[in-house]
Amino acid sequence: MSVLTNNLELFLRLFGQTLQLFAISAVLSLVLGTLLAALRVSPVPVFRAIGATYVTVLRNTPLTLVFVFFLFAYPLLEILRIEPYTAAVVALTLYTAAFVCEVVRSGINTVPVGQAEASRALGLTFTQMLGNVVLPQALRSVVPPMTSTMIALLKNTTVASGFAVPQAGSIRDALSEQGDNVLFGLIWVAIGFVVLVMPLTYVQQVFEKRWSVAR
Amino acid sequence: MTAASAPPMIRVAGVDKFFGPLHVLKNVQLEVPKGQVVVVLGPSGSGKSTLCRTINRLEPIDSGVIEVDGQPLPAEGKELARLRADVGMVFQSFNLFAHKTIGENVMLAPMKVRKTPAADARKTAMELLERVGIANQADKFPAQLSGGQQQRAAIARALAMKPKVMLFDEPTSALDPEMVQEVLDVMTGLAKDGMTMLVVTHEMGFARKAADRVIFMSDGEVVEDSTPEEFFSAPKSNRAKDFLGKILTH
Question: Where are the transmembrane segments (chain A) (predicted)?
């Protein structure tokens, strides 16, 4: 307990960083992933190919390598200078978007084809059909897998420890420098993550209940 | 065709369609003049539903020409969306938007496609729901309605776009017998009001009562094209005789 109480400020600050990394990457990857899913179900073959290529490349690459690219390789290209923190957000977002895309696409596939046909028959364009009819129904069925993807993202933020971007995963380094008990420190970090994930599970239950009506 | 005569509302000429090796539409010719009600009959698998779906290009064709109000069907895109907005379609399985209320179902396309203000769209929607007899269901979700009510809502939804022509793809085939009549009554009313209609159905009573013409299809071909009296009392082809023999004996 003393490891936690003596370093409370450190724990709070770094878990705050974790939450911030998570929140920004979550919003961005949800937006990007949904756009990618729209590409993957588009009637235009080129768009579908772009979506499929993106998912194949980013989903099949270890997250650590994505981090390495944006923190070490990308700066060498000298296009636009980005801070390590921004690079971490970019890496997490691009990586997670591939998973979000597949979750959304699986949701789109649960919507009966007649819903899309009725929209087209009424003269709605592809984007109007997706935005007004298909996606609102698709999102109902993706709440559980999307929550899992978001939980994975929250925990993936710790990969940033290896790249000098401070967050909860860096607590161990700080403790070991001070000579504190690292084992207990890590147990507290683990408890911290368990506590952080709980609200996500709660949000999942709320959405599942609210959207379970009238099918 | 002389310059003075108006183009038919629907013109299908030399249309062929394949599902893989299966030849589902064979050199189909069909014209539906403005204001006419044409009923398409035929055994299942004869291609009548496919024909109906090719007219607003829900099914693309492999060769031939389809024109709606003198305009050839455009390729997929904004042009096609505009044309579809003028062609109402009613499906066998209703296909009401499951996450929207009946009222919202009817309002959606006018607001998004025609940019009708919400208040106007709501007013029109309520009038149409009144006309099909389910105004009191406007705030319910599709799943809360009976099949017959859902199909009447689907008809109202199609009418909200003020279409030039209505396509009905077996509108009563998914309904319990006691609900068929309420849907047919709405359709008969539309026909009386002069709506141009192409109706794929198994309802012989509706064909007799409301149709100007009956098209009989078999194995992807248009076999007969005649008036209902002629078709039901003196069918020319053996395939039509065989078909009528099967359905009228019980």
Answer: 20-39, 51-73, 85-104, 182-202
A215 close to B (CB below 8 A) = yes
CA neighbor of A7 nearest in space, from A158, A177, A198, A155: A177
B94 contacts: CB under 8 Å, gap ≥ 6:
B142, B147, B150, B151, B153, B154, B174
Query: What CATH number is given to the structural domain containing A112?
Result: 1.10.3720.10
Reported as a single tens digit per residue, the pLDDT across A50-72 is: 999 999 999 999 999 999 999 88
Sheet containing B10-19: which strands, arranged edge to edge?
Answer: B22-32, B10-19, B63-68, B71-72
Q: Contact at 8 Å (CB) between A65 and A129?
A: no
User: Three-state SS for B104?
Assistant: helix
Chain A residues close to B115, C-beta within 8 Å: none
How distant is the Cα of B169 from the closest Cα of chain A, in angstroms?
12
Asked if A124's CB is within 8 angstroms of B81's CB, the reply is yes
Give CA angle at A207 (A205, A209), nearest 5°: 70
Domain count, chain A: 1
- CB A29, CB A96: distance < 8 Å: yes
The answer to whether A114 contacts B112, with C-beta atoms less than 8 Å apart, is no
Please check whether residue B146 touches A, CB under 8 A.
Answer: no
- The whole domain housing A110 covers 2-212
pTM of the entire predicted model = 0.86
Nearest to B98 among A43, A128, A137 (CB): A137
Confidence of residue B8 (pLDDT cuts 50, 70, 90): very high
pLDDT of residue B250: 55
Provide the chain B residues 149-168 that lie in CB contact (below 8 A) with chain A: 154, 157-158, 161
